[in-house]
């Protein structure tokens, strides 16, 4: 798991982790009676946006290197695409968790 963190790039993976940690804190605060559902929504979206941004920057750098090198094997290209998608997957995980929590909260409100 740590290997994926470093392969995804410590900067963006750390920023996404901070967003997810803040999101979980907002969820805990909501359980304690605070009105923090907007924070859960926004932090989930921010984590996803940071993941996509990290992937796009990674792809830009990979294509820049391919342009300099010239001929690249398909296996090397596929490996680069796989690594660049790690940040998006990590951000998407936090986004899905935030959406599931928001859906559960809305179902609970509708039930009351």
Radius of gyration: 18 Å
Distance between the termini: 41 Å
Quaternary: single chain
* Structural class assignment: mainly alpha
Short description:
This protein has 112 residues and is mainly alpha-helical. The protein has five helices and no strands.
Walk me through what this model shows.
By secondary structure, the chain is an all-alpha fold. The chain has a domain at 43-112. 88% of the residues lie in helices and 0% in strands. The chain has 5 helices and no strands. It has helices at residues 2-7, 10-31, 37-69, 74-84, 86-111. Helix 2 runs parallel beside helix 5 (86-111) and helix 3 (37-69) runs antiparallel to helix 4. It is elongated. The protein starts with a helix and ends with a helix. The model has no long low-confidence stretch (mean pLDDT 90).
Write the layout of secondary structure elements.
Layout: H1 2-7, H2 10-31, H3 37-69, H4 74-84, H5 86-111
Helix pairs in contact: 2-3, 2-5, 3-4, 3-5
């Amino acid at each position: 798991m740590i290997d994926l963190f470093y392969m995804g790039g410590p900067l963006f993976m750390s920023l996404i982790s901070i967003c997810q940690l803040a999101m979980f804190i907002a969820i805990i605060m909501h359980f304690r009676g605070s009105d923090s559902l907007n924070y859960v929504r926004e932090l989930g979206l921010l984590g996803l946006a940071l993941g996509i941004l990290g992937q796009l920057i990674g792809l830009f750098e990979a294509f820049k290197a391919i342009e300099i090198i010239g001929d690249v094997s398909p296996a090397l290209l596929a490996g680069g695409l796989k690594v660049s998608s790690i940040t998006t997957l990590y951000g998407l995980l936090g986004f899905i968790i935030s959406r599931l929590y928001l859906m559960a909260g809305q179902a609970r409100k509708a039930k009351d």
